[in-house]
Amino acid sequence: MRKPVTNGIRIFLFILAFLFPLSLSAQEVDRSATGGAQTLEDILARQAGQTIDTTYQLEQLGDPESAAPSSADLGVLGGASDADIWRAYRWGETDLSVSSRTAAADVVMQDSGMKWLNFRAGPLRTYGGYLLLGMLGVLLLFYILRGKIRIEGEKTGTTIERFKPLERFGHWLLAISFIILAVTGLASLFGRVALIPLFGKEAFSAYAWIGKWVHNNISWAFMLALIWVFLFWVLHNLPSRHDIGWLLKGGGLFSKHSHPPAKKFNAGQKLIFWSVIILGGSISVSGLSLLFPFEFHLFSHTFSVLNNFGFDLPTELLPHEEMQLAVLWHSIVSFVLIAIILAHIYIGSVGMEGAYAAMGSGQVEKQWAKEHHSLWFEEVEKANSSTTPAE
Ligand code: HEM
Q1: What is the pLDDT of residues 168-191, one digit of tens each?
Q2: Which amino acid residue places its CA nearest to atom 4 of ligand 1?
Q3: Distance between Cα 348 and ligand 1 center (Å)
Q4: Is the CB of residue 263 less than 8 Å from the CB of residue 240?
Q5: Domain spans of the chain?
Q6: Which fold has domain 112-163+234-387?
């Protein structure tokens, strides 16, 4: 019963505000209690993200002319309090200079901090969390409905080398560093809401300190491994005519007895590879800009390029805004790559019989190779037979 009434009141108030805007907005706020300064209501309204009329602050910039000289009793150092000076600065009514010359030292005030904090604590955590939980749910459902993808033909009992030791080293350097980065990164985002209630502030702050150090330093191993796997595998991940057929058949993952032909990497793996290279590259670049704060201006440059394609993005970003965007972009892209890698880990471990061996010992069952990478298997068998001397 209540709902239609409240809507009715809202609509009525809206019409009223529309018809008599001046009367409502001109309502004088009594600031006598705070000597003309902002009231508690102002602070609460701003924290709630409401826009409040702050022009009254322009009258609160201090009055040096009438200030008692500092030599007099109760004399003052100048006629403007710190609050007056900050207000004057906010309104551009004074010209502050700063003594420190560090990066971003000349930015004394910036408005985007609260928006950034609210976005990070709100939509970023919520939808990032949904994405990862969603992916885990989908993988569990896939496992329940499709089950482990088995080697269907008769196993030969003989193996073929799929990945050489250097390829596997690059893969595991990439994999282990990525997993550590993901865990420490998620902990820094969800620490306050998930870990502090569990372990308490002291334990969490100790962990957070170590986690940040590990995250900042293991990132170099990830970036090195990214270059490594790129150099080893890029030629095997160029698009080929077999990819369309593979994708159209869903790689045979959703139905039994269907094994579309594929070379060393099938279309699905090529998507993983390029996701890792492109998203991993973007996470690394935004991560580097966070490792060297205020040194890189990634977003103003990127936005100015994008503006050539009809966007209208801000190109004059404060160093703090660059950092805020770098943190958000770094986190958003990481959520997407972690979700993709969860699917990769599933298919590379419990989801497919015989797959793990490729990255474990490097030797795969020949029947597995025939079923999942038939064209690659034929190439290798041909190469092996041409190098093996005839009896
Ligand atoms: C425990 C975690 C992981 C397991 C069990 C795993 C397993 C595997 C296996 C078995 C392969 C070879 C597939 C084949 O024979 O074709 C592979 C390939 C690959 N892995 Fe992983 N992996 C893991 C984590 C990661 C992570 C964290 C990344 C990147 C951040 C990654 C990136 C790749 C790439 C790019 C390939 C080649 C393309 C592909 O097969 O998808 N892996 N992985």
Answers
A1: 999 999 999 999 999 999 999 999
A2: 345
A3: 6
A4: yes
A5: 2-106, 112-163+234-387
A6: Fumarate Reductase Cytochrome B subunit (1.20.950)
